[in-house]
Amino acid sequence: MTPAQAQPLCAADLDGSGDAETPGETAQCSEMTDGSYLCPIQQAACVADAVGAYSCPLGSQYPCATPIGGGTPSCSPHACTSVIGGGIEEEDPVVDDPGAPNDGPVDADGNCLGAIEIFAGRAVRCRPAGLKTTFSNCCKDRGEIVKDGMGSSISSIGTKIAIAKGVWTGMKAAYTAFKAGATASQAASAGANAIIVGIDPTSIAISLAINFMMDFLLSGCDQQDMEVGMLRGSGMCHEVGTYCASTILGVCVQKAKSHCCFNTKLGRIIQEQGRPQLASFNAVGWGTAKKPYCRGFTAEEFQALDFSKMDLSEYYSDIEARVQSDIQIDMKDRIDAYMETVNP
After folding, report:
1. What is the DSSP string of 205-246?
2. β partners of residue 204
3. What predicted TM-score, i.e. pTM, was given to this entire model?
4. 314 and 273 in contact (C-beta within 8 Å)?
5. Which of 43, 199, 276, 333 has a Cα at 20 to 30 A from 215?
6. Which of 283, 333, 226, 270 is nearest to 120 (CA)?
7. Does residue 223 carry a pLDDT above 80?
8. How confident is the prediction for the chain on average, in pLDDT?
9. Residue 1: pLDDT band by 50, 70, 90 thresholds?
């Protein structure tokens, strides 16, 4: 038995945008009687001459072929991909960096004895509307779902920096359940339950999270799209750039937006405003769209930051219950306590 082969595809930049990411700019090709395939985009009927020979009105360079089902021979100005694999070329590898591994030596109390990274991020991507997302915008912000408020005790730091990890765990649980046959509602509930196991339940709007996951699961978005979507909408991601993730015969049919996503909104803000102060980031910045540079600060770099030159108003506005001066004092206490733990 001959194995099934993927249907050939074709793509065309009809709107002059430089890609083929909108509906109607990609299509499945039709099989013809001579074994070739014809792209239906801008397809034209061939014209017969006096002796019955057909020619393409679009140009003699385009061959005429008859559909398997019969009818008038047709031609198209656009080529079809190879049958094998459908001809979609994927960017390799997908932007997905788990961040710095926690693999250094620790003391008896579990404190890190090796090199540490403060406010480290993870390189990830989401995809705007395109062929691979069934033309759904998987980068669309859906509002703040994860909250990044500061509690009253220093011990809550561990909970706050676990937020992103909890989101990643939840998205994986939801996507795995959905692929295993669960309904979107059941999968979203499984994802929400996985999230609140790892973080303070008051840090996330559960009902919004469930609706968010259901929306994503019913679209063409994947697990990483969901991860980035929730953190991006909650203000925890810095967008690095856009690159082409999938092409057909050299025509881009799916773009991706790369990000550095952090455990907290505060981490993202300090990274954005702290990096310009440090010479060690001058040459590389945030990296490139395909290779985001999301590392955290070393202890020495963090100590060198001048917080008086940072605008933290975006963060202050999220904590309306406390006056700004109290937050500044609390933040200084937290940073001092953290540095004492790192450098006793």
Report:
1. -HHHHHHHHHHHHTTT--HHHHHHHHHHHTT-EEEEEEEEEE
2. 146
3. 0.78
4. no
5. 199
6. 270
7. yes
8. 82
9. very low
d(CA 243, CA 92): 12
- In angstroms, the CA 290 to CA 91 distance is 9
- Write down the pLDDT at residue 48: 93
> What is the residue whose two structure tokens read 């998205």?
171
Q: What angle do CA 55, 56, 57 make, to 5 degrees?
A: 115
pLDDT at 27: 92
Both tokens assigned to 146: 């994860």
Sheet holding 88-90, edge to edge: 88-90, 237-248, 251-262, 121-126
Picking from 167, 118, 154, 148, the residue whose alpha carbon sits closest to that of residue 271 is 118
| Cβ(97)–Cβ(164) below 8 Å | no
Instruction: Provide the 3-class DSSP secondary structure of residue 146.
Output: strand
Polymer length in residues for the chain: 344
CB neighbour list of residue 280: distance below 8 Å, 6 or more residues apart: 301
Please give the pLDDT value at position 263.
86
Tokens of 66: 């008859």
Beta bridge partners of 238: 260
Q: Residue 236 is encoded by which pair of tokens?
A: 């925890």
Residue with tokens 């980031």: 281
Q: What is the pLDDT of residues 132-187, one digit of tens each?
A: 898 999 998 888 888 765 443 334 444 455 677 888 888 999 999 999 999 999 99
* Residue with tokens 């955290």, as numbered in its chain: 296
